[in-house]
Amino acid sequence: MRYDLVIFDNDGVLVDSESLSNTILAGYLTELGHPTSYEESIRDYMGSAMHRIHELVLERTGRRLPEDFDDVFHGRVFEAFERELRPVAGVTEVLEKLDADGVPYCVGSSGSHERISVGHRKTGLDRWFPAGRVFSAQDVGRGKPAPDLFLHAAREMGVAPERCAVVEDSPLGVRAAVAAGMDVYGFTAMTSAEKLTEAGGTVLFGQMAELPELLR
């Protein structure tokens, strides 16, 4: 294995949550008077930290989202997670392979620590990601596409950025990894290869089972 650390995005890469959360986000924004389709939510907000949703809505409409927006949204998302969330197909085998090869890995997610924890507990991925391997945009203040989160994760794991590989499925995440000086592997299950390439992705794959060989 040619990397000293593999950093995984969470939503859409480890847990199959993007369709659930973006359906809920589009519905809630529409309910609040900001008509948003599922496709628009994927396009504008996939991979975003919560602060970016607030910033984009304010920029576009001049209106602030309610103070309890985050709490209500996450409450609805967590209920859906408990009912429906599954791990991304093949990701457990990838983690087993990394363990067998002795390659460290961690999470670098725009989601909150609570969101990551709820999703991992429901899917059983918590066994692979103890607290010391979980990093959130909450830890750095600025979410993707800023490189801060990935640089923070590498620093905490004791690995130089150029020795890291990032696994991402959103243009925002790809841009953040490129800005951090890391190699990025674009997972095309939710986003087209064209969009990830435009963001700076160079290695693209559509099935998680392909990843271990690509990382070699």
Output the keywords.
alpha/beta, single chain, 10 helices, Rossmann fold, six-stranded parallel β-sheet, DNA polymerase, domain 1, 2 domains
Mean pLDDT: 95
The low-confidence parts are none
Terminal residue distance: 5 Å
What structural category arises from helix and sheet content? alpha/beta
What percentage of the residues does DSSP assign to strands (E)?
Answer: 5-15%
Structure description:
This protein is α/β, with parallel strands linked by helices. The protein folds into 2 domains: 5-17 and 86-215, HAD superfamily/HAD-like (Rossmann fold); 18-84, Orthogonal Bundle (DNA polymerase, domain 1). The chain is 48% helix and 12% strand. It is built from 10 helices and 6 strands. Helix 1 packs across helix 2 (38-45), helix 4 (69-84) packs parallel to helix 6 (113-123) and helix 8 packs parallel to helix 9 (193-199). The radius of gyration is 16 Å and the shape is globular.
